[in-house]
Amino acid sequence: MTTARAVWTSQGLQQLVKRELGDCHLVVVSNRQPYIYKLLDGQVSYEMPAGGLTNAIDPLMQSCGGTWIAHGGGTGDRLVVESGNKVMVPPHDPSYTLRLLWLTEEEEQGYYYGFSNNALWPLCHNAYTEPQFRSRDWQAYRRVNELFAQQVLDEVGNRPAVVFTQDYHLALLSNLLKDSNPDIITGQFWHIPWPNPDIFRICPWQDEILEGVLGNDVLGFHIGEHSNNFVETVARSLDARVDRDYSLVNFRGGTTLVRPFPISVDFDEIERESRSAAVTREMDALTEELGLEGLIVGLGIDRIDYTKGIPHRFRAIGRFFQKYPQYREKVVFVQAGVMSRTDIDAYQRLAEQVDDLLEEINSRFATAGWKPIIYLPTDLPSTKLMALRRLAQFCVVSSLHDGMNLVAKEYVASRFDEDGVLILSPFAGAALELTQALIVNPYATDDFADNILHAVTMPLEDRQMRMRRMRATVRENNIYKWAAQLLVQMLQLNRRGRFSGAEPALSSAD
Question: Looking at residue 501, what DSSP letter applies?
Fold first, then answer.
């Protein structure tokens, strides 16, 4: 294997960070904590929340060490923290520090459910859900960003530091840090899309948000379109100097490098888990429990969110069984996923819509002993999810608008048997990399149904050819390569001062 094609590993990333970090303290900041401690029947246990961000960043922190600062939302969190509200994680093999901060119910409602997920989330996703902009939510959002900034500054103290902020909940954080300590090297990864300027301008506080994220030395998005949208939004909205050729923004004496960094998964770890005896046993148990023996299994794994296109997916499945009745009692679709953000009206309406479609399709096509859709609306453990991926001949990712969607990459990484078909929306960032998937517009119901037929009838040789190519892509572009590409931009600022415009060298052979 040539150096250019060498695969990044945890060890390679660790060596890179040690070489580049010097005496800087690495701090990751996010709303969500990587390990949630729960109190149940007097006993404290822990779990890792489902979602791409945690699964992506935790391997990085285990490799590199440092401190992760997050909101503590678990019922057992206060019982495990020590001085400074800190606890070493992972619990089974501690390698970095988790520092938690506490929010009041009012702060959480305004900052998280209010401005983050009732305003910014629908604003950035073209899913035809109107954002709700309320002044009290914006004030809570600002206040909580200030609380996070205080925690970071306390953690950093007088030490040189690199602060890596995650996502849209903390858009103001980096600018607050720079106001207090201009020497902190700041980077942020925006895990959701950035819309075009005409959409973003409807936000009453767009200038404050833009100024907040321009406190970063490096700002990352999943794909080039989102990076370009951000740069163009700045150019139209602020008195900033924009270099579109190099994706640089100069604003109030600071420079921000804006780049796409497609996020990924820990390919080797997912493949290792998928080969385990526990997953094989779970496959047998699920086959018996769900009555899957002899059936072609399709799969969807999603947090139940209006951006994921689940109603569109269900309509396509219903249309498939209507157009191709010969596949009734031969194909079954398993939809796994848990509701979230249930305090928000749009999510309540989505839950009702999903339930109504499920009842309509199953009542229309079900026969004795078989129904077309099996719905598992619970938070399933990772072993069950892995078993479902292994059982599924096809997996559907039908995002209406998504930053990346790691479900697609997790499905590919789990298929060490080189079998399975991925049906993928062009509106998910993963579609730019996983070009051997069946790319389907989720709004085109008939075409969607025809592609389900294609997945069901595709010869094994064709399935394996497509899967081999997708697996090679995900193996090479894994989570460690993502972290290396992003962090090297930040960490080399520590070696040469602020960004000079030259591209740093990056080799997994280091």
Answer: S
CATH topology of domain 3-264+479-496: Rossmann fold (3.40.50)
Q: Are 211 and 176 in contact (CB under 8 A)?
A: no
pLDDT tens profile 457-510? 999 999 999 999 999 999 999 999 998 898 888 887 665 555 444 444 444 434
DSSP 340: -
Q: How far apart are CA 411 and CA 301, in angstroms?
A: 10
Cα separation, 266 vs 479, in Å, equals 5
Instruction: Identify the residue whose tokens are 């909940």.
Output: 169
Residues in Cβ contact with 15 at an 8 Å cutoff, skipping those fewer than 6 apart: 510
Q: In 3D, which of 226, 290, 237, 291 has the Cα closest to residue 259?
A: 226
Q: Say what the pTM is.
A: 0.93
Question: Cβ–Cβ contacts within 10 Å for residue 321, how many?
Answer: 22
Residues 6+ apart with CB under 8 A from 211: 175, 238, 251, 252
Dihedral angle over CA of 324, 325, 330, 331, nearest 10: 50
Q: Residue 337: which pLDDT band, with cuts at 50, 70 and 90?
A: confident
Q: How far apart are CA 411 and CA 291, in angstroms?
A: 22
- Rounded to an integer, what distance in angstroms lies between the CA atom of residue 277 and that of residue 208? 52
Q: Point out the least confidently predicted range of 3-7, 137-141, 172-176, 468-472.
A: 3-7
Give, in order, the Cα–Cα distances in Å from 295 to each of 7, 169, 242, 332, 505.
37, 43, 56, 7, 50
Spatial separation of the C-alpha atoms in residues 222 and 402, rounded to whole Å: 9
Segments of the chain assigned to CATH 3.40.50.2000: 3-264+479-496, 267-475
Question: At residue 201, what is the residue type?
Answer: R
pLDDT in tens, 149-170: 999 999 999 999 999 999 999 9
Residue 441 main-chain phi, psi, to 5 deg: -70, 115
User: What's the sign of the alpha-carbon dihedral 10, 13, 19, 24?
Assistant: negative
One-letter amino acid of 348: Q
**In whole angstroms, what is the distance from residue 229 CA to residue 226 CA?**
5
Is 414 within 8 Å of 274 (Cβ atoms)?
yes
CATH 3.40.50.2000 fits 267-475, yes or no: yes
Burial class, 294, CB count within 10 angstroms (exposed 0-12 / middle 13-18 / buried 19+): exposed
For residue 426, is the peptide bond before it cis, meaning its omega torsion is within 30 degrees of 0?
no
Question: 315 forms bridges with which residues in the sheet?
Answer: none
CA distance 38 to 75: 5
